Each structure stands twice: as structure tokens, then as C-alpha cells.
Amino acid sequence: MANREPAKRGAERQQRPVENQGTETPVSKGAARHKVGIASQGRSWLRHHKSTAKQSLLRLLLTPLPSVMTLAVLAIALALPGLMFVGLKNIHQLSGEWKGDPRISLYLQQTLPAEEAERFSQTMLLRTDLAAVELVTKEQGLHEFQRISGFSDVLAFLDKNPLPAVVVVQPLDNQKAELVALQAELNSLPEVEEAVLDMVWVERLASFVQLANRVVLVLGALLALSVLLVVGNTIRLSIENRKDEIQVAKLVGATDAWVKRPFIYTGFWFGLIGAFIAWLFVQISLLLINTPVGELAALYQSDFELQGLGFFDSLSLIGAGILLGLFGARLAVGRHLREIEPQ
Amino acid sequence: MIKFENVSKRYPEGHDALRDVDFMLQRGEMAFLTGHSGAGKSTLLKLIMLMERPTRGHVSIAEQDLAQFSRDDIPYHRRRIGVVFQNHQLLFDRTVFDNVALPLHISGYDEDDIGKRVRAALDKVGLLHKEKLNPITLSTGEQQRIGIARAIVHKPQVLLADEPTGNLDPALSEEIMRLFMEFNLHGTTVLIATHDLALVSRMPYRNLILDQGRLIDGK
Q1: Which residue has the higher pLDDT, A202 or A246?
Q2: Contact across the interface for B85 and A21, Cβ inside 8 Å
């Protein structure tokens, strides 16, 4: 926006009102008109940026109460999507761990003798499209069932083992179509009673993650919009408060860019500081839930570790805050500054 | 320097503020603009400042027709004009020095240059020793002089004033007028709108008289 100003000034100088024509007049000898060189204007432009940035920040700090209120709203509106994003990231990580190895469980015919089951698993081992084959014999199955279910007493009443032998195979190809084809093929083998693809829950998880993604996106967009509105409204009030100054500045020849600059910087600071506080909120929240999550993971014998924002995502959060601040300020400035003209 | 050619201004609500105003002010000339309130004095000054555009006719400053200036050109046009408006007074959130320095900051002067020029302007209006004060602590007359210092700090080609002696007693008014005369002696074109006819009659300058939007004398 404003950074093309000096070049434009130089280029359009000819058509512009001639500021320093007075030097041509003989009467003006005593009062040589001022000239402002392009270089001096460039320096002054940079200096104005620096001093405006500084003064906008000072102004923010000089009115602590309203600034803190606005910043708190911004920080919360930015921290919520931040936290949701971290949650999503962790769910992704969890689902990623399992998604990698879909298995097909081949429940063998109940009548198949143990040696046949053994031989069948050997033939499976020879197949080139399987990464791993594991035979769970009837006895092992029963044993495991007793251990996990706690129905050992009930099972003792049964006169024979009701469980079939199971061959769990892990296909090499994880594409869904390939998996389904393989499942059908294995299903048709005479030894196999039923081939079950352990993918339903993977699919459920995947669609759940997708839904969560969408929800985070929608809520994030809404919260971003609220950041825009909060910044916009704050800037609007600030423009209203400095109406006199804007009118005087326009009267003595301030360009629109010059008048806008302090407000754009105010938006920038709100965005930056708001996002930084939001980042702190997120980090503190993560610290608070880290211990319980660790305990929960330990109960599931998982070495799952809660992921934080990380460097890149932290930068993204701050960057998003700054952009929203700048954009909110632009909106307010574009709408309200033109209306203020010296009367 | 200032040229009005058959200028009329009608406001949207139908009020004719100026009708066929036609006059010319030479470079380095000083003139008064008088008339009852509502006669169109302020409108005339606003047309020069491009705060308003004429409904008909042409206004030229330094042989440039103002009609050719787009909205983006207006700031650059205003930088060559100094203006003392009664209702555009000083900013009370900064010192006298910073008030006077505002036009220089806007035009992009170097920092040390600004210091020199602001002090020169304050010296001219006799208030150099008050540069660090907040203008709210100054008297009306002093505030008016600070306003004048702000109007002349960038040595404009044209100096406009709207009722610069409005709330001042005769002695102070005289003093302010002497300031304008002094700037005029240095080559600045000066146009002062005022209703202080007694003061005008004591000064040897041209008097443009407006009556209900028409220029009835002083062409």
C-alpha cells in the first residue's frame, strides 16, 4: 500500500501542483521557498514509518485498559483455533500410527485340523503380496481370550474350544481398492471361513478426523472474522478520537497514506501482541493437560506424547494474527477515513 | 496568483453560496475579503483549498486550473498554501513546537531542518520561548499566533486566513494584521476573510466585498 508512495511522488511530480514555484518570482527574494528533494522525502518517508510504528505502540501502552480489553478478546479468539489445531495435530498423529498397517484376519474353518492350519499359514507366508503372516491357533486364541476377557470361569464350562484358528496377514499394499480385492480373494480360499478386513474402524477414524478438520476450519474462520471485526471496531473508535488531528493534517497537505499509516500500525500491533498472548495461552494450556495426557497414555501402554505448536506453527499463529490485524485496520481505515475531510 | 473566472457554487441543498465570482489576485498581492456572514467568504476560501469544487467556472492558482487536480493531487496542492482557519485550531495533545512542525513532517522535511524552520516561524510570531508548552495553556491571541506560525512555517506561496482576528481585542487584531503584512512584504500572496470592517478600512489594501454570493466591489 504505502510503500509505492515515494516512487509515485517522483513520477507524478510534473502533473502535480508545483509546490515551489515561488523561486521564479523576483519579489520573493527575502523568503526563499522551501524545496524538498526526493532523497529527503524518501528518508522522511522511512522515518515517518519508524516513528509512526513507535508512536502507535506507545499510544496502545498509554491507554492500557481499553488496549488490554481488546487484546484479551483478540488473544482468546486466536487461542481457540490455535488449541483446536493442536488437538487436530495430535489426533492426526494418533491415527497415523495405526493407519499404516491394515490387517486382514482369516478365520479358518472350524473343522480344519491344527496341522492343516499350520500348513495354510505356511502357504500364506509364500505369497509375495503379504508383508507379515501370523498364525493364532485355537489354543492361543482361547488363552488370549481368557486373559483379556476375564471369562475364564465361563469358558471352563465349555467342553470344547469354540474359537477358530486365525491367520492374521498384513498386506504389502495399503491402497483401499487393493485391500478389498485381496480380502475377496482370500475369502474364497477353501480353508477360510471368513476374511475380515480390519479397516472399518480405520475408515471411521479417518472420517472422524475429516469432520474434526472441517469443524476446526469453520470455527477458525468464524473466529478470524471476529478478530477482523474487533480490530476494525477498535481502529474505528481510534479514528473517531483523532478526528481533529486528521482534519488538520489533511488541511496542511497530508496524503491519504500519511493519515492512514498510524492506524495501520495500530492494527499491526494489536495483531502481533494479541497473537503472542494467544500463543502463551496455548502453551500454558498444553502444559496444564500434558501430565494427565501422559497418564492416560501410560494406561493404554502407549508412548504417545502430546505435541505442542512447534516452531513453524507458532510462527503461523503470530503471522495470522498480524495479517488479521493489518487487514482489520485496512477495512476500518478504508471505510471511515475518507469521510473525515476538513469542513 | 489566484484567479476566479465566473465561479459559482451551489450546495446540494440548493443554496447558492457564490454567483459568478470573477477576480484576480496578483502574485505578492494582499487583499481582504469582506461581507456579512453567509456572504460566501468561507466558500471562496474552501474553493482555493479544494475543500469544495465549484459548480461552474474555473479557479486557478499559479496559472494552474484546479479542476485538473484529482483527489490524489489535493495534498500536494495544499502544501503550497498556508491557511489560518478559525475552527481548525491547534492540537492539544502535543507541544507548540510539534503543532507548528506538523506541515513540515507531512511534506517530508529532514529532522534538523524542521527544528530550524519551526523556531524561525515561532520567532516571527514572537512565541519562540513557548515552544515546549502545550497550546492549551496559552491565551487566545497566542494560540492564534501559533496557528499563523503553523500556516507560514513551510513558506507557502499563498496565505489564506478566515476570520483570523475573530475573537481578539482591537490591539491584538492589529498585531495579527501586522504579521500578515510582514509576510506579504516577503512576497507571499495574502487573502484575509474578515468581518472587521474598521480594521480593514485602516489598511491600505484591496477589499473584495461579497454580498449574497456576488462580488460587488474590489474587482
Answers
A1: A246
A2: no
